[in-house]
Automatic annotation (TrEMBL), chain A:
InterPro entries: DUF8054. Coiled coil: none annotated. Residues 124-138, 159-179 have a biased composition (Basic and acidic residues). Residues 124-188 are annotated as: Disordered. This is DUF8054 domain-containing protein. Pfam families: DUF8054. Transmembrane segments: none annotated. Residues 2-183 form the DUF8054 domain. It comes from the Archaea.
From TrEMBL, chain B:
This is Septum site-determining protein MinD. Gene3D superfamilies: P-loop containing nucleotide triphosphate hydrolases (3.40.50.300). It comes from Halorientalis persicus. Pfam families: CbiA (PF01656). The lineage of its organism: Archaea, Methanobacteriati, Methanobacteriota, Stenosarchaea group, Halobacteria. GO terms for biological process: negative regulation of cell division. GO terms for cellular component: cytoplasmic side of plasma membrane; cytosol. GO terms for molecular function: ATP binding; ATP hydrolysis activity. Residues 6-212 form the CobQ/CobB/MinD/ParA nucleotide binding domain.
């Protein structure tokens, strides 16, 4: 997926993908979001998730490292934050071409459900979606190598390497901060 | 006997305060329970417990020459409740390391202490409840950010010598789905899954009414889930004096 250049409208570090989705929805973004996990421990350095939006409602999902699109890309994208989030605005015309990629499409509420487990946000997103998209089926990749209903949360919990990396990082952080905070004696 | 639990999640919005008060009320059927709002920066327990207009809170106790802790203890819903104020000035003036003495004092006269803990691990005052507690109850939601933050809380707790008492999955919208998530997460979290609590309008209404869930809607499914959690929590006995001594001797961070 080659991303067209556009106007950068928002750039910040967010804790979870739900914040990215909410930011795009609240701004009624037409364009795309790039999510770059800051945890290089967990992922290859060039791993990025891309979601496109039409008036704040997600249309496509793509993951640069796994080269998967649609719902499987959401599973790839579902890693712990923080992320660097960039929202880029594009013209309708540019986006219409990009959106002619059925294999990458995701139903409007699915990113909020899968990435953030946020049912309120998913409902809000569906309410903003045009009628013809509310019942949209997932993109063509959905059935190729992963059941559409696979839970991103379960996939996360099955990735023992990723979990161990999170734990090890937390242990290191706890130790470092203990010494910073004068808690050395309680550290085990 | 006294055991102190930190109710923690490392992430906001998981329903920690609702869980703390619900667990407290359920445990109060068997034990003498004291609930402390240890989230001194973002206190909200007072709103959940109908204590938003009280004169003395934990903030008034955590300052030099401040009020005696007894003045900030309120008997509500069958528990002793220690609310914290919400003013920024109160937070800035408070010396969080004094929490150790507060817990030590209250430990003398209670069976179970629940510390409603901050939704962050980013400061000395935020990790203090986890350091002071015997064990931590990790409040999770079946989402990746919540599980990831829950894992971090547990690692911090273990690094500081605090064990895991168990986990609570809160705000669950799909009970079938959560079973398999809870099953898979058991590999990583110590202790039992104490409860899977359904997402509930009753919990939101209770908060608006300024009452704990178990007082506002005792028959709600969510309330029953917390009673189940209380039954499954194996409260360990420890001599009150030992606990008080331990808190007093705990190594506490320097004042901010």
């Amino acid at each position: 997926m080659k991303l067209p250049s556009g106007r950068l409208v928002h750039s910040r570090v967010v804790d979870d993908p739900g914040s990215a989705l909410a930011a795009a929805l609240d701004r009624e973004l037409t364009g795309y979001a790039v999510l770059e996990p800051q945890e290089t421990l967990l992922l290859a350095a060039d791993a990025r998730g891309v979601l496109t939006f039409s008036e704040g409602v997600p249309v496509l999902a793509y993951h640069t490292e796994t080269d998967r699109g649609g719902p499987p890309a959401l599973a790839d994208l579902a890693v712990p934050g923080p992320y660097r989030l960039e929202l880029v605005a594009l013209s309708d015309a540019v986006l219409t071409d990009l959106h002619d990629t059925p294999a990458l499409r995701v139903p409007p509420g699915m990113p909020a459900e899968r990435l953030a487990g946020d049912h309120d946000l998913a409902a809000r997103t569906r309410a903003s979606a045009p009628d013809d998209r509310v019942r949209e089926s997932p993109g063509g990749d959905a059935d190729s190598d992963e059941p559409a209903q696979e839970s991103a949360v379960e996939a996360f919990l099955e990735d023992e390497g990723k979990i161990e990396a999170i734990r090890e990082q937390a242990r290191e952080e706890a130790r470092e901060r203990a010494s910073e905070w004068g808690l050395d004696d309680v550290c085990e | 006997m006294v055991e102190a639990f930190a109710v923690a999640s490392g992430k906001g919005g998981t329903g920690k305060t609702t869980s703390t008060l619900a667990l407290g009320m359920a445990l109060a059927e068997e034990y003498d329970v004291t609930v402390i709002d240890a989230d001194t920066g973002m206190a909200n327990l007072l709103f959940h417990a109908g204590l938003s207009s009280v004169d003395t809170t934990l903030h008034d106790v955590l300052v030099e020459g401040g009020a005696p802790v007894e003045d900030a203890v309120y008997d509500r819903f069958g528990m002793s409740v220690v609310p914290c104020g919400t003013s920024l000035a109160g937070f800035e003036a408070a010396e969080p390391e004094r929490l150790r003495d507060v817990v030590a004092t209250l430990a003398v006269d209670t069976d179970v202490i629940l510390l409603d803990s901050p939704a962050t691990l980013g400061s000395k005052s935020a990790v203090l409840p986890i350091v002071l507690a015997d064990r931590v109850v990790v409040v999770l939601q079946p989402t990746i950010p919540a599980l990831s933050d829950g894992l971090k809380v547990q690692e911090y707790a273990h690094s500081y010598g605090t064990e895991t008492a168990g986990t609570i999955f809160n705000k669950v919208t799909d009970p079938d789905d959560v079973q398999s998530v809870a099953e898979k997460s058991r590999r990583y979290f110590d202790g039992p899954t104490l409860a899977t609590v359904p997402d509930s309008d009753a919990a939101r209404e209770a908060r608006r009414a300024g009452k704990p869930l178990l007082a506002y809607a005792p028959a709600a499914e969510a309330a029953e889930a917390y009673r189940g959690a209380a039954r499954d929590l194996d409260v360990r006995s420890g001599a009150a004096d030992d606990v008080a001594d331990r808190f007093r001797s705990a190594v506490i961070p320097e004042p901010r």
